[in-house]
Amino acid sequence: MGKASRRKAENRALKRMNPEQFAQSQDKNRLLHGINPGSSDPAVPVAIARELDALFDEAKRTGNIDPPVRLLYTTVNATVHGLSDIPIACKKGCSHCCHTWVSVSAPEALYTAKIVKQRGDAAIEKVRSAYAHTKEYDFETRDQHTYPCPLLEEDVCSIYDARPKVCRFAASADAEICARTYHNITNENVPMLMMYLVGRAAYAMVMAAGLRHTGLPHHAYEFNAALARALETDQAEQRWLAGEDIFADIHRDPEDVLSNPQTQLLYRYAFPGATKG
Predict the structure, then answer these.
(1) 8 Å CB contact between 252 and 219
(2) What would the pLDDT profile of 46-72 be if each residue is shown by its tens digit?
(3) Which residues pair with residue 156 across a beta bridge?
(4) Is residue 39 classed as helix, strand or coil in its secondary structure?
(5) For labelling, which of 207, 260, 261, 275 has a CA lying 20 to 30 Å from the CA of 126?
(6) DSSP 157
(7) CA-CA distances (angstroms) from residue 251 to 140, 141, 256, 269?
(8) Rounded distance, CA 162 to CA 123, Å?
(9) How far apart are CA 95 and CA 93, in angstroms?
(10) What's the pTM value of the predicted model, to 2 decimals?
(11) What is the DSSP string of 55-93?
(12) Which of 74, 61, 85, 65 is nearest to 34 (CA)?
């Protein structure tokens, strides 16, 4: 079939769709390239929030958090790939930012916990040890008590393809400043790159919106604490998806992304008629 014939067939198929089916089709097409941090068009963030909502809703029925987390990471990767023309100082073995607070959503912690469990007792014990060293420190004090991420191996992330979304947006213009600042040698401002910061914020918003509409907790937690809790809780994934907030009492990021006016606007676009509570 030639291009013209395929296009006609596609148009006929689109005409047979009802408005909801058409919107879903458009949403899936928009997911392929991820969010463009330089664009003010809400179409892609809205599409991702809707797809996450649908996948989280399915996860509540199946007890499996993997599909929405994989979608999240796939779209984040597409966004980061789109920023590849921006020079950054980060490279393999540069792990200074892996010694301080990392914010992670509950689905990401549950997803990572399954990977750690597959690696056996030694990997689990390494997480417990890291948490024991950092559990007393909240968001404001953690950076004064640096400790390596338990998933680092010789300064390289051992779960690189499954690392949290905030780690994927960690990008600096000067690794030497990172080394001095993250290890508390100086108090310089790390030269973060604006497009990466905007991308990180955008994905925090779509994640919070998708979780909220599905009726699941949308907060971000300290990585060591959330990972340790997921590992020590029997049937953690299934219980959290069933509505038990197993992370309720651990340190969380003080910023409630859902209260952000931009997130509220995104929520209204993505889920018209829904009530944000």
Answers:
(1) yes
(2) 999 999 999 999 999 999 999 999 999
(3) 153
(4) coil
(5) 207
(6) E
(7) 11, 11, 13, 31
(8) 15
(9) 6
(10) 0.88
(11) HHHHHHHH---HHHHHHHHHHHHHHHHHTTTS-----TT
(12) 74
| 10: pLDDT strictly greater than 60 | no
What residues pair up with 192 in beta bridges, in sequence order?
Answer: 172
Identify the residue whose tokens are 């790159």.
Answer: 193
Mean pLDDT, residues 74-97: 94
- The position carrying tokens 């919106």 is 209
**What is the Cα 210 distance to its own chain's centre?**
12
What are the tokens at 130?
């890291």
Rounded CA-CA distance 27/89 in Å is: 34
CA atoms in the 13 A half-sphere facing the CB of 112: 30
Tens-digit pLDDT profile for residues 168-183: 999 999 999 999 998 8
User: What is the rounded average pLDDT for all residues in the chain?
Assistant: 90
Tokens at residue 202, please?
Answer: 């955008």
Query: Counting Cβ atoms within 10 Å, is residue 82 exposed (0-12), middle (13-18) or buried (19+)?
Result: middle
CA 243, CA 37: separation in Å to the nearest integer?
33
CA 172 distance to own-chain centroid: 19
Rounded Cα gap, residues 30 and 21, in angstroms: 14
Q: How many helices (H) and strands (E) does the chain have?
A: 12, 4
**DSSP run (H or E) holding 159:** none
